[in-house]
Design a protein that fits this description.
flat; 2 domains; single chain; mainly alpha
């Protein structure tokens, strides 16, 4: 397929996101339930598919891997919208979704303007898959951490005011209830846990290919395993002990902090993308 096809896919995805943002605008109460319908969910899934299809060629090109900040942002927003699509099956999406769709529209076209640099040595499909999984896992926990902070702030407001009405004016307007936020957080953590698991498995394959044995023990590996253990502990604690609210939020933030230690800033680029020691 020609590059122009993928550019068109990115353009159509951007237009689709903007259309959903318009349909999800706050003034129309009925339009907020658009994604509650099968047609709306199918439309969003189609747009997500176009967005992902526009990113794959540069990621798995025979010439090498095109990577840059625009690609990273685009993948992150792709994942954010995918998680929103999953949430649309469980509850009505808040009005803030409109802003996420607008951001996704910008992110879909960003790699066309800033294609990034070419890594000619990154030609192994397993290596590229490992890099992508690591980036998506990091992005997922970033979203989970943001959700955890919102939940903590909302719970503190509840204790301070003794009463929060979701539809009354305030920063929480349009957000799900605390119970809804808690359930959403756990679904995001579950996705993040699965992505970290796949990252570790693919990392073993990459390590073997590079001649490092089953696992290269460095700070990135140690903190990634720590994040995996923290996420697993939270999921088990939720299942067996009913952990929720602040407890779940704090475990989520601890897992995010572990991944942050593993992939923060230049370390993420050097060790996950370029697979070099910093």
């Amino acid at each position: 397929m020609e590059l122009s096809f993928y550019g068109a896919a990115a353009g159509l995805a951007a237009i689709g996101y903007l259309g959903l943002a318009w349909a999800h605008r706050r003034p129309s109460a009925g339009s907020q339930q658009m994604l509650s319908s099968a047609a709306g969910q199918l439309a969003l899934l189609s747009i997500i598919g176009l967005h992902g299809a526009s990113l794959l060629p540069n990621w798995f090109s025979r010439d090498g891997l095109h990577f840059g900040f625009a690609t990273s942002i685009s993948w992150t927003l792709w994942l954010a919208v995918l998680l929103l699509w999953i949430e649309s099956w469980f509850q009505r999406l808040p009005s803030i979704t409109q802003g996420i769709f607008v951001a996704a529209a910008v992110a879909a076209g960003l790699p066309l303007v800033f294609p990034g640099f070419l890594l000619t040595s990154a030609v192994d499909a397993v290596f590229r898959t490992h890099m992508l999984l690591a980036m998506l896992a990091y992005s997922t926990f970033t979203l989970a951490a943001a959700s955890a902070l919102v939940m903590i702030a909302m719970e503190r407001s509840l204790h301070r005011t003794k009463k929060i009405v979701i539809d009354q004016p305030g920063w929480w307007q349009g957000l799900p209830s605390l119970l809804g936020l808690d359930q959403m957080l756990m679904r995001v953590v579950l996705v993040g846990f699965l992505l970290i698991t796949l990252t570790l498995i693919s990392g073993v394959m990459v390590s073997i290919n590079f001649g490092y044995g089953l696992m290269r023990v460095d700070h990135k590996t140690v903190f990634t395993i720590a994040a995996w253990i923290l996420a697993l502990t939270l999921l088990v604690g939720r299942r067996w002990f009913g952990w929720r609210g602040k407890v779940a939020a704090r475990w989520t933030l601890a897992g995010f902090a572990a991944l942050l230690m593993a992939y923060v800033g230049s370390r993420f680029v050097l060790e996950v993308v370029l697979h070099r020691a910093g």
